[in-house]
Amino acid sequence: MSEKYDVIIIGAGIGGLTAAAILARNGKKVLVSEKNPVPGGYAVNFCRGEFEFDVSLHLINNLDRKGGISYSILEECGIKDKLQMLSPKYLYRSIFPDFDIRVPQCNPKSYIKILISRFPKEKEGIEKLCEVMSSIFYKVEGLQGTKISTADFVSYLYTTSQDMLDKFIEDEKLKALILQLWPYYGSPPTKLSAFYFCYPWHDYTYIGGFYPAGGGKTISSALVEVIKKNNGAIKLNSKVERILIKDNISYGIENSQGDVIQGKRIISNIDALSTFHNLVGNKHVSADFIKKIDGMQPSLSAFVVYLGLNEHFKKVNKEDYIIFINSSYKTDTQFISFIENDANNVPLSLTLYSNLPSNMATGGNKYVMTIMTLAGYDFWKNMSLEEYKKHKNKFASILIKRAEEFIPNLSAYIERIETASPLTMERYTGSYKGAIYGWSQLVSQSGSNRLKQNTPIDHLYLSGAWTQPGSGIKGVMRSGMNTAHRILKETK
Q1: Which of 211, 415, 383 is nearest to 312 (CA)?
Q2: 266 neighbors 409 (Cβ within 8 angstroms)
Q3: Which residue of 321, 335, 340, 424 has the lowest C-beta tally within 10 Å?
Q4: Do residues 13 and 264 make contact, with C-beta atoms less than 8 angstroms apart?
Q5: What is the pTM of this model?
Q6: Omega before 200 within 30 of 0, i.e. cis
Q7: Which phi-psi region, left, alpha or beta, contains residue 85 (left: φ > 0; alpha: ψ -120 to 50)?
C-alpha cells in the first residue's frame, strides 16, 4: 500500500476539481486521478496550428456576482479573483423561418418588449410567465422578490417546460422563441423539467451570459492551481480501474499502472454507470440500485465543427457571438432530428469566439468559431473507420453550408477544420454514449429523483453532472461544493 489520502477524487472534471479545491483549502490531503493528459473534462482547450479552440464552453452565467450561490462557490474554491469575465454585445441571436431577433445582454425589459412587439396579443401571458420564471430563480438563490409559494415552486420541479409555457402562452411560434435555449439543457421542452429551464433562463436573461477570458481551461487551471497550492496532488494519465471496497466501505483505488492508493473517502466525478458497473462492481450494490441506474436516461451527445478562419473574416460579422439557427418551431421534431443526426434539419448553435475582446486564435489576426448541434450516439457506433470518417466529413460539410446562409461566404475564410462526434466525446470523457449533460434533465430525473452525492457504499460519493443538482458549469460546481461540504461535516 502506498501513501494514504484523506480524499481521492476520480476524474478531473470541474465538479471533481471544485470538491478537491474546497477540501484541500480545508486541510484535507487530496489526490485527483485523471485518465487524460490534461485536467478539466469538457472545460479544456486544444490547439491546432495557429488556432486555439474551446472544446465546449459557449456561455456561462456571471459566476462572480456578489451575493449569489456561484459567488460563494468561487470564494470557497479560492478562484474568485482568477477569472476575467467577457461580455458579448448580445446574449444571442435567434433565427427561425419567420423571425430573426437579437436578445439584449443584461436587459430583460428590452427582451420582453421585443416579444410583446411581435406578439401583442400575448402581452399579459409574457409578463406573467417571466415573473414566474424569475421567481423560481429568486427562490433557489434565497433572494428577495420571489412571488411563488414553496408548494408552487416544488410543483415546477415536476412540471415540464412545455406545460409551464402552455399555461401562459398560446402562440406556438412565441413558445419556440422563448424556449430557444433548451438545446443547451439537452432535453426537449415536453420532457425538460420547468425548473431546469427557468433557473438558467433568468440567470442568462436578467444577469447575463459571459465567457471567461482564455476559455474553459482557465476555470480548470485556476482550480488545479489552488489544489496544488494547498498540498493536493493531481495525477494525470492515471485511469482508475477499480474502487477498493471491504465490508461495504470504500478504502482506496487501483489505477491503470497497477498502483494501489488508499483513501479514507472516495469521490467519483465520472459517469455514474461506469462508476458502479466497472469500478465498484455489481456485487457490492443491490440489484434494485443497479436496476435504477440502468433505467435512467443519459443525455444526448453532440457534434461540433471547429473552424479556424483567416484574417479577412473580421469584415463579415462583428457583433454576433452566439447564433441559433432553427429550421422548425416544433421542438419535438427538432429533438428527433438530433437523435437521428439529420444534418439538414438539426438546430444549430454558432459561436463566434473571436467577436469577444479576447481573441481565441493563438497567432496574428486569425479567428475561431464553432458549429454545434446535439447528436444521438447510436447513429455513429457501428461504422467502420472509413465510413465514420466519410460521415463526419459529410455531416460537417452540410452544417457549414447551412451556416453559410447566414454568414456569407464562410467557406472562403476557412483555414482549418476539426470535428468531434459523439464517439469523440465518449473517447475523451468516458461518458456513456458520449453524454454531455450526464443524466438527461427530464422531469423524472429532476430534484430528488436525480442521484444524490452519497451512495450505497460507505465513504464513496458522487459529484458532477450525473448527480444533483444537474449539468452545466454552475451545476457541477455546486455539486462538487455539496460533496465537499458533506465530507467536511462528516470528518469534523
Answers
A1: 415
A2: no
A3: 340
A4: no
A5: 0.94
A6: no
A7: beta
